[in-house]
Amino acid sequence: MSRRTPLYDKHVAAGGRVVDFAGWEMPVQYTGILDEHRTVREACGVFDISHMGEFFVRGAAAVSWLDGLLTNRVAKLAIGEAQYSLMLNENGGLIDDLIVYRTGDEEFLLVVNAGKIDEDAAWLQKHLVDGIEFENRSDDYAALAVQGPKASEVFERFFAQPLPAERNRVIELPSQTGGRLFAVTTGYTGEPGFEIVFPAGEAESIWDSVIEAGAKPAGLGARDTLRLEMCYPLNGSDLSPERTPLEAGLGFFVDLEKPAFIGRDALLQQKAAGLSVRLVAIQVTDKCPPIRSHYPVVANGEAVAETTSGALSPSLNCGIAMAYLPIELAKVGQALEIEVRGRRYAASVVKKPFYQSKP
């Protein structure tokens, strides 16, 4: 049975079209994907991301424990800083991609993907050691993502203070009910903005206040086209336990120089042997129907892969996709075709990302 965020009634009242996503009833659109996409690129949109998971990790050994479970170097984080990181299995495959926020000297907030909450929690609990306190607070917190060139104006109206200029920062502020509220300068659209994590009971009030401050509701449809234009991977589509971060082009977030972490040995072996596939960006040059996942990718007349993500790019007005191609076909400029409903459309490998945000 699908779950609902604390904002479900708000979405319905605003005309949101609700669909199932990772076991949650979520709005895919309100006024339309194109309109909401442009709003985020040109002004400011707000997404309900309350389906995401929130974990707290505490203890004197929290840094070393997390460094043994995640690919990025947690020890680099000062209080108030955040980083994107990956959690791997022993074979180097991706369990989940997540954001780590250092909220105290010995405390961290981890925000994980909605469809991975239970699996991630079980994995972390399996590897617990003495002196580490782990809390899954996903049911107790809600969250919003406020994104777009005018997000700073919304932040200032809502919080009565300027939005921090630096990316990947977290500040803790008092919530309306005296609980913990975290404002973070992270996002999934390529635009400036912020996210708010706060007690679930305050969701409706904060949603209304953010909209009153100038943000427009946006759904999962626009969130998907925005992130794909930036080549941000989607867990469960572009990322999976069968793929490694090196194959996914996420090596920047893997610190192979730090002491052992789960999956490190497998990645070192793969790096030494050389990659056989790589996740690439593909742009369709023919006018075509929208691209989806699992569409055949053809090179030299033969199917060589399938798309992991795909969409019609509202910013570029053409089909875009990502796929794991054999390494010899993964070079920028490689001619390809994508098969849609039995018809093939010309395409080519292009440099990531598809879209460059305006300064």
What gyration radius follows from the Cα positions, in whole Å? 20 Å
| SSE succession | EHEEHEEHEEEHEEHEEEHEHHEEEEEE
In DSSP terms (H or I, runs of 4 or more residues), the helix count works out at 8
Q: Estimate the strand proportion.
A: 25-35%
Q: Could you say what the CATH topology of the domain at 3-52 and 139-229 is called?
A: Gyrase A, domain 2
From the coordinates shown, what is the CATH architecture of the domain at 3-52 and 139-229?
2-Layer Sandwich
Provide the CATH superfamily of the domain at 3-52 and 139-229.
Answer: Probable tRNA modification gtpase trme, domain 1
**First and last CA, distance:** 43 Å
Beta strands, count: 20
- What about the largest sheet? 6 strands, mixed
Poorly predicted residue ranges: none
In which range does the helix fraction lie?
10-25%
- In terms of structural class, how would the helical and strand content be classed? alpha+beta
Arithmetic mean of pLDDT: 97
The strand order across the widest sheet is 11-12-13-10-4-14
Describe the protein's architecture and organization.
- A hairpin with a 5-residue loop joins strand 6 (82-88) and strand 7.
- Among the domains are: 3-52 and 139-229, Gyrase A, domain 2; 54-132, 2-Layer Sandwich (Alpha-Beta Plaits).
- It has a six-stranded mixed β-sheet, with helices on both faces. It has a six-stranded antiparallel barrel with strand order 15-18-17-16-19-20.
- The mean pLDDT is 97.
- Helix 2 crosses helix 7 (220-229).
- It is built from eight helices and 20 strands.
- It has 359 residues and is α+β, with helices and mostly antiparallel strands.
- It is globular, with a radius of gyration of 20 Å.
- The chain has helices spanning 8-13, 33-42, 62-67, 117-126, 151-159, 203-212, 220-229, 264-273, and strands at residues 3-4, 17-21, 24-29, 45-48, 53-58, 82-88, 94-104, 107-112, 133-136, 141-147, 170-174, 180-184, 193-199, 216-217, 277-284, 296-299, 302-313, 318-326, 335-340, 343-350.
